[in-house]
């Protein structure tokens, strides 16, 4: 499929092959008999990216880069070794992160055993890198600012559910228009809470160990809202994007396994929020350069928001 101007709405999508979930986008983006592995990133067409890049920008001074000369130590060498789990910090989830649990299949029908077989090379961030990373129009819905302004009771820990009605209210409050292909950013205030709470606070430790996180309500209505807006990806400052634990509906199953839509988590959106408020503009040009790794389940975002 090359023409994305008339995508089916959520209710017009078929069920998953095993009949357990409505709203399955497998095969929708296949082209020339080739199984698609990019999912909703296909919506970031050249026209969409160029349009986002052409939007009015503010000139800033260039980066000042200082190199430290270590020759005084008597050794002329530089090296490093980095080892980390992307899930423990700001990261993207690829469609390989979470399968449709009942069928044990990832996006477009890739089986769990097939993915984990020896030398199996599938999706991952190498494909993202090959198409130029993730670049396009980012839009911030500053739910945390809206909630504070409207005295909405909320805590980032405790399974508070953010409804799509509230997301629409935030967009209207900001006078923000959502467009197909947008990369949706949602600020809930989770990172702000983590940054301000003392790391040795026993109450903070107990709350995190409960593994109950606030976020977007996991419901068919939420699935319908996200698909019908045709976002290319979603990002939040939360651990799970959706309120966790979930019930019968799990947004991870829909976003990653059914649609191939990347989920960004634990992004620090505090400075972005400040800039958006100061400019009264909640859209920007996003560039993200994920790791160039085959079969990668996730990656640091290496992202910039350009105004």
Automatic annotation (TrEMBL):
GO terms for molecular function: arylformamidase activity. It comes from the Eukaryota. Gene3D superfamilies: Putative cyclase. One of its GO terms (biological process) is L-tryptophan catabolic process to kynurenine. InterPro entries: KFase/CYL, KFase_sf. PANTHER family: CYCLASE, PTHR34861. Belongs to the Cyclase 1 superfamily. This is Cyclase. It comes from Capronia epimyces CBS 606.96.
